[in-house]
Amino acid sequence: MAFSNIRAGSIILAEPYRFVPPYRGTFWTTALWPLYPGTLSRRFGVIETKVHGAQHVRRSIARGQGILLGANHSRHSDPFVFGWLNKEIGQPVHVMATWHLFKQGRILAALLRRIGGFSVYREGPDRMAFKTAIKILVEARRPLVIFPEGLCSHANDFLRPFMDGTAAIARGAARRRAAGVALHPVVIRYSFCGNAEAVVAPVIAELEVRVGLAPGSKLSLVERIFKVGAEVVARSEEKYLGARQAGDNSERRTRLVEHILRPLETEWLWRAYEGEAFTRMKQLRARILPGLITKKLSESETARRWKQLDEIDDAERLYRQPPNHLRTCDTPEQLIETVERIEEALTGRAQVFRPWRVVIEVGEAIEVNGVAWNGTSSDPLMIQLRSRMEALLQPEVK
């Protein structure tokens, strides 16, 4: 599906951001429900969704609390599958979803908004989304879903570092609601129902040709997948470092990301930073993109800034890869996720493999108070949420 006003291989939109507010009624949520399962199947390959632990949310509803659901984000279908939670808890939810999802066609955008979605600007601060999220929790008419990772990981069994916004929203609302805020950990688990090797084999053959490897060699499929993945890293090294490097793939990716980001930070943020890379990428995009949106830059400056945004995209694709010791192809899901990340790194898009079954696992509430975090150490609320979500990710909890 084509994106309007968007560069190939990127999700950066060169147009002014316009906040998409949530639909607060219930008519369309009910009226569009017959279209919902079919749209999930056609667009994302999701054929079945089950919800476990909905009673925890119903208990928080009965207490009159504002309800925040912190969920992992492994697939682009995540904001949409929460429509099934609506049915289980007896009321719609609101979902904070990145703006570009609302630009992927009128039908998908209308469905996302009608099931409670509202936009958040991925490329910079979004005060309207922040205020809307707090208002939803203070009013406590519907639960609110937020994805603390801030990006889609293509990793069904692994959590990326969390962004700070989730805790700030929860505490901000708790200070304004006497009944408090209940933060529920949520894990979305996808299970592939088909023959994973059969569906990824032709894709790997195409990617082998793209990177100059002999397709269909005598190596096993998994060996071929990792060989293509290694070639992606090596090509990035040639592009940015001038030559292929030796050593552990995770360390090489980390070096590449730093090599890409540091000169950009020096230019746009006045110094090179350290720490969580995705936050740094967001800060850079927030500085580079506004000039492009005005369309008043010279042709050469426009080309230069797009080149810089493309470099940040490259860094993000490298950053999305889990550490080597956490990445295997032992399950059908891991096999497909690995191919998706490689394909996205090479082409900017990952095709939809199908079919998938989904389980939404909801945990017991974490009670949130309005006491501000002093910021001198890791946020204890985010530590607790992450610990609960990691526990839910374990197979024995299912």
Task: Offer a concise description of the structure.
The chain has helices at residues 27-31, 36-44, 54-62, 78-81, 83-89, 106-114, 127-139, 165-174, 196-211, 221-241, 249-268, 277-294, 299-319, 332-347, 380-393; strands at residues 46-52, 66-71, 94-98, 117-120, 144-146, 181-192, 356-362, 366-368. With 398 residues, the protein is an alpha/beta fold.
Topology:
Elements (H helix, E strand, L loop, with lengths): L26 H5 L4 H9 L1 E7 L1 H9 L3 E6 L6 H4 L1 H7 L4 E5 L7 H9 L2 E4 L6 H13 L4 E3 L18 H10 L6 E12 L3 H16 L9 H21 L7 H20 L8 H18 L4 H21 L12 H16 L8 E7 L3 E3 L11 H14 L5
Parallel strand pairs: 1-7, 2-5, 2-6, 3-4, 3-5
Antiparallel strand pairs: 6-7, 6-8
Helix pairs in contact: 7-8, 9-10, 9-14, 10-11, 10-14, 11-12, 11-13, 12-13
Can you walk through the features of this model?
- The chain has 398 residues and is an alpha/beta fold.
- The protein folds into two domains: 27-193 and 355-397, Glycerol-3-phosphate (1)-acyltransferase (3-Layer(aba) Sandwich); 196-347, no CATH class.
- The protein is 48% helix and 12% strand.
- It has 15 helices and eight strands.
- It has helices at residues 27-31, 36-44, 54-62, 78-81, 83-89, 106-114, 127-139, 165-174, 196-211, 221-241, 249-268, 277-294, 299-319, 332-347, 380-393, and strands at 46-52, 66-71, 94-98, 117-120, 144-146, 181-192, 356-362, 366-368.
- Strands 1, 2, 3, 4, 5, 6, 7 and 8 form an eight-stranded mixed β-sheet that branches.
- Helix 9 packs parallel to helix 14, helix 10 runs parallel beside helix 11 and helix 11 crosses helix 12 (277-294).
- The longest helix has 21 residues, at 221-241.
- The chain is globular, with a radius of gyration of 21 Å.
